[in-house]
């Protein structure tokens, strides 16, 4: 269950940021049901494996994987307010499911740990 939650959060956060930067008017992920993703172990694990290069990717998984590095390194600074809410809920859900997988994801996409303080501040207060 931890793997699924982690993967889902990461993927959704990344997708939200990418959609905001590339398509400012695209609201595809603004009303995403994060709770259903976090609760579904199978889906969450699939996304996790995708973003961690441990399994195949769906179309959404590929999109999430593409934008995840920027989402993590900017602490979702380019996200709309609604996207920030979605990304924050997903990342917190992933972290709650598995701290180890959450940290593994951060190590992959922010290996120098340069952006962790900003990311953890965003997770703590949404800003």
TrEMBL record:
UniProt cross-references to InterPro entries, sorted A to Z: A10/PebIII, OS_D_A10/PebIII_sf
Keyword list, A-Z: Signal
Signal peptide: 1-18
PANTHER family in UniProt: CHEMOSENSORY PROTEIN-RELATED (PTHR11257), GEO07322P1 (PTHR11257:SF13)
Protein name: (diamondback moth) hypothetical protein
